[in-house]
Structure formats: structure tokens, C-alpha cells
Amino acid sequence: MPDTSQITAEMTHTVDVCVCTFRRPQIAELLASLANQQLPAGWRIRVIVADNDEAPSAKEVVEQAFATNRITGTYVHAPARNISIARNACLDAAEGELAAFIDDDETARPDWLANLINRLRATGAGVVFGRVAAVYEPNAPKWVVNGDLHSTEAFFRNGSVEGGYTCNVLFRREAVGELRFDPAFGRSGGEDTIFFGALSRKGVFMAYAWNAVVEEPVPAERANLDWLVKRYFRSGQSFSVVLRANGKNRAIVLIKSVLKIGFCTAAGIATMWSAVMWRRALVRGALHAGVLSGILGRRPLQLY
Q1: 304 lies in a domain?
Q2: Fewer C-beta neighbours within 10 Å, C or N terminus of the chain?
Q3: Does any domain span residue 6?
Q4: Beta-carbon count within 10 A of 32 CB
């Protein structure tokens, strides 16, 4: 594990909180929540916002929010409607020893960043993921709320965090180095899975802070099975890239994917009595179908 002796409460440290945005006025609420962060002694926050729109449409909203909330911040125009370009612009603008990513439609609980920092210091990790708690509308279907398939948590395999996401993460900039997000996945999504997969192959230790929570509203158009199936399918396609990069045998992955799809199908049929369980099995099957699609070289599904 990396040496944690350089991160002490007696020194002044900066964490750059990076936000990529595209035509979302909700970013003002996110920035207000960042202004309310209760940081550990010796830490200060700087916010970097990368606007991915062709025109600098978020500039006025962002700079007004910076001023209103007394935030030390930097606005960067990173056009092209490609999220990887915006994420890379954030990394290029970062100056602190730590950097975090959070989505522009989320809000951070006051202890969010402190819990990430404390977990990083306690574990010596290079990367720490937090939890994304979905917030559903009052009229959302009951199975959507009870199943809570929109929330995001770290996935563990054999006791280690596998994969990754940028909707709630903190990392040491020295651990990332010159690594950047792949623009080839900037429209389909999955660029974050591939990015953290590359860090994992470099031997960067990744941890999880369950108490570092951000909240994400789920709009009505996403509170349905069709959107979830597409989301999980695309996640599977992205994960297939990581499997190939890790040198996994293609034939074995194909066979395992087919078997898992079959198992999920059987599980779905067997749990038809439960509004949540059969849908959970279906979206899990969609994940494995996405892995199968990716291994077979199919073009990534574009969600955004």
C-alpha cells in the first residue's frame, strides 16, 4: 500500500472536486452542497467544472454559484459532447494531491468528502469509492423503490474492489499519473470502468467508504425496466473490455456468460411471484448479455 505519512492533519492539503456538466441547471444545487462540506482539519476544497456543451452554456450558472457559495473554483470549457474529454480536462486542471469526481445531478451529504478522505488515510488506498443513494419521485413504481436498482455501490470479488465509477470517487493524483479516460467510450459510457480497470492492473489498491454518500434523483424516464436493462447491458459491454485487457480467455468468458444468462433466466422464472426479484434477475442477465456482446465485438450501446 502507498505510504500515508505524507497526508497529515498538520499540513494544508487541497482536494480538487471535479464535475463534468452538460446542460443541467441542477449543478447549482450540487455546488451549494460542496460549499457545505465539513472537511478534516488541514484540508481545503477547490472545485473544477468542465462544461461538455458546444457552447459554454453553464459558465454563467457555475460562476454565479461559485460567487454565491464562496467556492474556490475553476470553470473549464471542454466541448464535444464526449464525457471522456470533459473528465480529462478536469484531470489536466487538477493541482491538489487528491482529486474527486461527482456527477452534476447529484448532491453531497456534508460529511461526504471527509469520509472519503478518512477512508483513504486509514487504508492507504490509491482510490476510494463512495455510495450513490438513489432518490425516487413520490409516484415512482413500488418495485423500483423496493428494488433500488438505481443506487450504486462498489462491487467486490474475492474481497477486492473490482471495477469502478466516477459518480462518487476520491483518488491520489500520483496514483493516476498520466492515465486518462478513453474518448472512444465517451458517448456510450463505460469510460470510468475502463479507466479504473487500468489502474487496477497497475496495482493501485482500491477501497470503499460506505458512509461517503451522495444522493442522485431518479427522473421518471429512468424509473422503468427498459432503462435499467439498457444500463446494465452497457455496463456489461464495458466490463468485457476490462476482461480482455486483463487477459481473460475469450472462450471461457463466452461460456461463463452464456451459463450466467441461463441461470438468471431460470431465476427470473422461478421468482415471478416477486415484483422485485424477477426484475433483479432480468437486469443481472442483461449485464452478462452485455459481457457476451462485448466479447463478441459488438458495438457499444449508446445511452447518452
Answers
A1: no
A2: N
A3: no
A4: 15
- 221, 137 Cβ separation under 8 angstroms: no
Domain finish residue from 162, 192, 222: 222
pTM to 2 decimals? 0.90
CA distance 228 to 205: 30
Beta bridge partners of 214: 108, 132
* 129 φ/ψ angles, rounded to the nearest 5 degrees: -100, 145
User: CA–CA separation, 162 vs 239, rounded Å?
Assistant: 10
22: Cβ contacts below 8 Å, ≥ 6 apart: 51, 52, 53, 81, 83, 86, 104
Which domain, by its residues, includes 256? 230-295
Cα(224)–Cα(256) distance, integer angstroms? 28
The mean pLDDT of 238-253, rounded to a whole number, is 85
Do both 175 and 65 map to the same domain?
Answer: yes
Mean pLDDT, all residues of the chain: 91
Split into its structural domains, the chain has a count of 2
